[in-house]
Amino acid sequence: MDLDASHGFQQLEVVRCRGFQDAAAIAVAVRERRTVVLQLDQLDPQEAQRIVDFVSGAVHALEGQFRRLGHATVLFAPAGVVLSGS
Fold it and tell me: Which of 33, 48, 56, 69 is the right S-S partner for 43, CB 3.0 to 4.6 Å?
C-alpha cells in the first residue's frame, strides 16, 4: 500500500520473508521511512528468530520500533511512526 506522504502518511510494505537474505532489504526499507509488516510463517522458528533479531537491532539503531503482531508476524516502523494499542 503506497499512501501519499504529503497527507501525513507513509509507505507500508507487507513482506513474506523467504530467508535471511531478505533481512538487510527490510532494514533498508525502514531506513527509507517505510513501515514493514514481516510475515515469517514459511520459515523454521530458529531462522525466523535470527531475522527478527537482526532487523530489530537495525531498526533500534535507526530509532524505530517493532511489535509482534502474531506468532509469525512482526511490524517494523521507522522513527516518528506512532504504534498504539496492545
Answer: 48
Cell of 46: 530458529
What digits encode the pLDDT tens for the residues 10-66? 788 999 999 999 999 999 999 999 999 999 999 999 999 999 999 999 999 999 999
Retrieve residue 68's grid coordinates. Answer: 509482534
CA 42 distance to own-chain centroid: 16
Residue 55 belongs to a domain with what CATH number? Answer: 3.30.110.150
Asked if residue 45 is part of any domain, the answer here is: yes
Q: What total number of domains does the chain contain?
A: 1
Q: Domain range spanning residue 18?
A: 5-77
* C-alpha to C-alpha distances, 52 to 9, 24, 38, 84, nearest whole angstrom: 25, 11, 9, 20
